[in-house]
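Narrative summary of target 7.
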Amino acid sequence: MAAEIIKYQGIIFPSRMEGMPIALVDALLCHRMGIVTPEGGMVEFIKDGETGFVAAETTTKGLDECMEKAWQRRNEWESIGKYAGKKVRELVPKFPQKQIIDTINTILD
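Modeled conformation, tokenized:
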């Protein structure tokens, strides 16, 4: 019997100190879930059990438990990734450069 193949993957950020990694946003936009530590802006994008998995603490033990929790739900990775892609589009503007230009113009006016 062939081994089970996991088609849908995520991204793991075991960071101890982090801002908002663009790679996480890119992964979510590609409908991939995140497995992250509760650092920086990551928890703004990853809701534990909904759009990925967030470790309870930024330790080896915390990340290990988080990855185990994710593995126990591996059959849901596709749907979690799809939901993550939907939710990140609500948080990130389609044309962020326009928002920046509009903000600068407002300040200059």
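The first helix runs from residue 22 to 29.
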